[in-house]
Amino acid sequence: MIPVEYYLALSATLFALGILGVLLRKNALVVFMSLELMFNAGNLAFITFARMFETISAQVVVFFVMTVAAAEVAIGLALMVEIFRTKRSIDIDQLNSLKG
Amino acid sequence: MLIVFFVLAFVAVGTAISMLLTRNAIYSAIFLVLNFGTVAILYLILGAPFIALSQITVYAGSVVVLFLFVIMLLGAERMPGGEPLKWQRFLAIPLIIILAADFAINIAREGGKIGMVDLPIKGYGAPADIGEILFTQYALPVEVTAIILLVAVVGAIVLAKVDQTGRRRDMYKREQR
């Protein structure tokens, strides 16, 4: 028997680490990986509640989240390759062309 | 049971921290695979075998392979060191501490009251059950997801078209002057 709040604490920790990566890292690819970490943390909390309330539907929702995340990764990495080809860098501090 | 959970939680948090700290993006991707693997085992413990195996095939399989492919294509393992945005770091760390404290307070306040989860009974969350719900109750979302994936594939192809790149690079260089 594992208390539900342990899973929630793990999920919250992973989520906070993901935000930390998004805010602090400069390599756009690592920022992207941190985003995936946050998706994962959210999914973990979702599955925990699915188990707690014994609903299969919540697992289906997690499946949809994973599908959309995969689509997002495909688009995001294509954008990143394109940015690299144009600017020769994926340092997110360099992406300031829209700055007034 | 608790020991298994703590070992998995330790590995998951450890790999997440290592992913953030390592300077080499390839090591970050490898740590990410480990993290996804441990979370997949947690899904198995929570009675979601279908989600656990999708996690391994979709995340640890294709997504991370895509990441590794792009890292090696761009040669972006190591970023040239520039000066980091100092004010951003000073702002980010207190904000993260506030967020973590918020999570901790809320989880501690509800601690012991939420409930316990045990190992699932045999056959709980079987792929056949998931498939049945997926194609009856959630048939419309499945179709919408299919369209999202199609748009993503078409978008990725359009973005990666080579003949547009030269024009964009010229525009960017003109702007730099």
In short, what is this structure?
The complex is a heterodimer of chains A (100) and B (177). Chain A has 100 residues and is an all-alpha fold.
Integer average pLDDT of chain B: 86
Would you report the number of β strands of chain A? 1
Whole-angstrom Rg of chain B: 22 Å
Find the count of extended strands of chain B (DSSP E, 2+ residues).
1
Roughly what percent helix of chain B?
Answer: over 70%
| Proportion of strand residues of chain A | under 5%
Features:
heterodimer; A: 100 residues; mainly alpha; Helix Hairpins; 2% strand; elongated; B: 177 residues; Four Helix Bundle (Hemerythrin (Met), subunit A); 2 domains; 7 helices
Task: Describe the secondary-structure layout.
The complex is a heterodimer of chains A (100) and B (177).
Chain A: E1 2-3, H1 4-24, H2 28-53, H3 57-87
Chain B: H1 2-21, H2 25-45, H3 49-74, H4 86-109, E1 116-117, H5 127-136, H6 139-159, H7 165-176
Helix pairs in contact in B: 1-2, 2-3
Describe the structure.
The complex is a heterodimer of chains A (100) and B (177). By secondary structure, chain A is mainly alpha-helical. Chain A has one domain (4-87): Helix Hairpins (Orthogonal Bundle), CATH 1.10.287.3510. Chain A contains 3 helices and 1 strand, in the order βααα. Chain A has helices at 4-24, 28-53, 57-87; one strand spanning 2-3. The radius of gyration of chain A is 17 Å and the shape is elongated. The mean pLDDT of chain A is 88. Chain B folds into 2 domains: 1-77 and 105-122, NADH-ubiquinone/plastoquinone oxidoreductase chain 6, subunit NuoJ (Four Helix Bundle (Hemerythrin (Met), subunit A), Up-down Bundle), CATH 1.20.120; 138-177. Chain B is built from 7 helices and 1 strand, in the order ααααβααα. Chain B has helices at residues 2-21, 25-45, 49-74, 86-109, 127-136, 139-159, 165-176; one strand at residues 116-117. In chain B, α1 packs antiparallel against α2 and α2 (25-45) packs antiparallel against α3 (49-74). The model of chain B has no long low-confidence stretch (mean pLDDT 86). Classes of the chains: A mainly alpha (100), B mainly alpha (177). Chains A and B meet through β1, α1, α2 and α3 of A and α1, α2, α3, α4 and β1 of B.
